């Protein structure tokens, strides 16, 4: 097998330009495409000028009698009837199984994106002369790798390709440089105010204040200024115990390097990180060390968004409406309604729905209940631009009103999406009033019995029923979600389905996967397999866990994973889980911040591919098939020093 270390002929020449550059993130649910025809003039131009084109990775056909076919983005732009939509998916279980459908989607979307590129003459093959970065399945079959490279070089005419995974690109995604700069600037302002002396200090509290009740130890000494507020620690710390301090804006600009899209790089990035890709077909935990995946530690969970959509269709079809043919609508409803219950290891608080455990949610069914109005396509004469008319809208329930507060208040946003506290308080007040009225009636009955000379209550009266838990009215039973006689709206109720279906990520035995590890155990197993007894690497992976993919944005998921993982992880390790702001598009965002020199070393030119074939590309890209016989080292290299931290 050829060596994995790239030789001088395996990289693009130094004089060869990396541009024009295209990035395609291929997912089983959606497709993302980003084109950069030339190097941007300014370092910050890449983050604004390059537009990301997103479209469904599917071909849809409407029901008879129209039977119209829509490809890719046309499903959302031109289709006006999503009821009974028949989908043709090119990817099954994460692998491309329908190459004809996949090529048709690529042709339409690439041509559409090229029409928006300035200076593109057109003609010839679609990507002729372009360098391409494309994502593939984590455990892609060797035969599919050959077919993918052959199609890209022969059918699209690319000049060079880098076949990689979404997790490797996501490891380059930014983790909040601007937040570090603002925190540092705020800390400097505080220090400047405190250094001005006693004139800048606030006056001491009055005598009636509790703070002035305790006398000072040295009355003659002048009051000392309070210490400066420490800036918030960066999530990009390269050590689990001592993260580096935030850098000022000038330092960031000095250390910024050119990226594949000429965007400024983040000042510090951890040497090792663990990317958890929560996709539509499956979930993968991928340890990444020195920008290369450690394949021996990659773990797969056979659960994803598609399984949740099928479970939602099954439950709704059994209880309310027949939704067996409404995969498209149920997938969109799942994205807007699902949340994750809090961990049993967290302290529950009644006023914070984000801390409610599954047992507490069972007693508060009415507070989390949502009532949706299904879309009506019978009177739709044209394309409905309003999202509510195309996918339905919420009539009542949590998440209907916007959240007022700071953007970084994660708990407040989750509370608003999970439960309606006003409905819960109204139910509790109604229950207290009902209990008080029952007590008054019992006292009146007892007085009547005593006046009439009846026997004691403890001998004749029936036992008093136990009070019901504080909750609002329960969800309607089967057959209650019928058509309203006053209008033509079809309403749908969602209550416990909102959190019980995502619970399969933490209890896979509920769907028959008895031998499958839960998500927190899967993450810990991936970190331990990658570390192989190296405590420093294990601690670095556990304190730099990043959630990406379409399911990563579910409310409560990050807190639940962190709490459950903290309970089973070694006590000496710091556990920290974060979610990127653009979790679903983490691969594209990471490619923007990828250094240009690193990309040039990864891109395989057409001339080299014609000489070495797919065997050379496997060794160059470091896929799992190239490392399966060599001990599963990081990025195609063996174990000899590839997993050692720098400086150790």
From TrEMBL:
It comes from the Eukaryota. Residues 186-270, 425-488, 608-648 are annotated as: Disordered. SMART domains: ACTIN (SM00268). Gene3D superfamilies: 3.30.420.40, Actin, Chain A, domain 4. Residues 628-641 have a biased composition (Gly residues). It holds the Pfam family Actin. Residues 437-460 have a biased composition (Acidic residues). Residues 209-221 have a biased composition (Low complexity). PANTHER family: ACTIN. Belongs to the actin family. This is Actin-like ATPase domain-containing protein. It comes from Jaminaea rosea.
């Amino acid at each position: 097998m050829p060596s994995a270390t790239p030789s001088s002929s395996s990289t693009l020449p130094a004089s060869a330009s990396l541009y024009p550059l295209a990035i395609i993130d291929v997912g089983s649910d959606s497709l993302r495409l980003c084109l950069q025809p030339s190097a941007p003039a300014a370092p910050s131009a890449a983050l604004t000028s390059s537009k990301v084109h997103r479209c469904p990775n599917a071909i849809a056909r409407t029901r008879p009698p129209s039977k119209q076919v829509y490809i890719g983005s046309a499903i959302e732009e031109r289709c006006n009837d999503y009821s009974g939509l028949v989908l043709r998916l090119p990817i099954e279980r994460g692998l491309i199984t329908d190459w004809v459908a996949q090529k048709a989607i690529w042709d339409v979307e690439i041509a559409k994106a090229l029409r928006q590129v300035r200076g593109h003459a057109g003609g010839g093959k679609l990507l002729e002369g372009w360098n391409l970065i494309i994502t593939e399945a984590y455990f892609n079959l060797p035969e599919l790798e050959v077919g993918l490279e052959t199609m890209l070089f022969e059918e699209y005419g690319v000049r060079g390709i880098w076949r990689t995974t979404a997790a490797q690109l996501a490891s380059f995604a930014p983790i909040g440089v601007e937040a570090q700069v603002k925190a540092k600037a705020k800390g400097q302002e505080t220090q400047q105010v405190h250094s001005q002396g006693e004139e800048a200090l606030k006056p001491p509290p009055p005598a009636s204040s509790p703070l002035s009740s305790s006398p000072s130890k040295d009355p003659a000494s002048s009051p000392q200024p309070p210490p400066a507020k420490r800036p918030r620690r960066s999530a990009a710390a390269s050590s689990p115990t001592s993260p580096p301090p935030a850098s000022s804006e000038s330092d960031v600009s000095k250390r910024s390097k050119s990226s594949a899209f000429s965007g400024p790089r983040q000042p510090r990035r951890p040497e090792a990180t663990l990317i958890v890709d929560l996709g539509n077909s499956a979930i993968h935990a991928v340890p990444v060390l020195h920008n290369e995946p450690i394949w021996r530690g990659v773990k797969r969970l056979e659960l994803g968004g598609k399984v949740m959509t099928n479970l939602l269709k099954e439950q709704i079809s059994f209880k309310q409406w027949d939704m067996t043919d409404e995969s498209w609508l149920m997938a969109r409803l799942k994205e807007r309604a699902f949340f994750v219950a809090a961990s049993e290891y967290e302290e529950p608080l009644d006023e914070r729905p984000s801390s409610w455990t599954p047992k507490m949610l069972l007693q508060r069914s009415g507070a989390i209940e949502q009532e949706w109005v299904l879309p009506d396509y019978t009177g739709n004469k044209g394309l409905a631009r309003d999202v509510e008319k195309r996918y339905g809208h919420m009539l009542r329930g949590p998440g209907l009103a916007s959240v007022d507060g700071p953007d970084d208040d994660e708990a407040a946003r989750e509370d608003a999406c999970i439960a309606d506290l006003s409905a819960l308080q109204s139910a509790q007040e109604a229950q207290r009033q009902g209990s008080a009225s029952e007590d008054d009636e019992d006292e009146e009955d007892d007085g009547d019995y005593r006046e009439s000379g009846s026997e004691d209550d403890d001998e004749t009266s029936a036992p008093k029923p136990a009070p019901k838990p504080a909750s609002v009215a329960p969800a309607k039973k089967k057959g209650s979600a019928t058509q309203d006689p006053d209008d033509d709206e079809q309403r749908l109720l969602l209550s416990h389905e909102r959190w019980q279906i995502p619970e399969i990520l933490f209890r896979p035995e509920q769907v028959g996967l008895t031998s499958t590890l839960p998500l927190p155990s899967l993450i810990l197993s991936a970190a331990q397999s990658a570390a192989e007894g190296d405590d420093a690497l294990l601690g670095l992976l556990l304190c730099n866990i990043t959630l990406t993919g379409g399911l990563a944005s579910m409310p409560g998921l990050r807190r639940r994973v962190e709490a459950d993982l903290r309970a089973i992880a070694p006590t000496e390790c710091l556990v920290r889980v974060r979610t990127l702001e653009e979790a679903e598009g983490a691969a594209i965002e990471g490619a923007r911040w990828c250094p240009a020199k690193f990309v040039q070393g990864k891109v395989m030119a057409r001339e080299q591919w014609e000489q070495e074939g797919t065997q050379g590309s496997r060794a160059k890209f470091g896929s799992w098939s190239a490392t399966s016989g060599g001990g599963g080292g990081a990025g195609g290299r063996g174990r000899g020093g590839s997993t050692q931290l720098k400086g150790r």
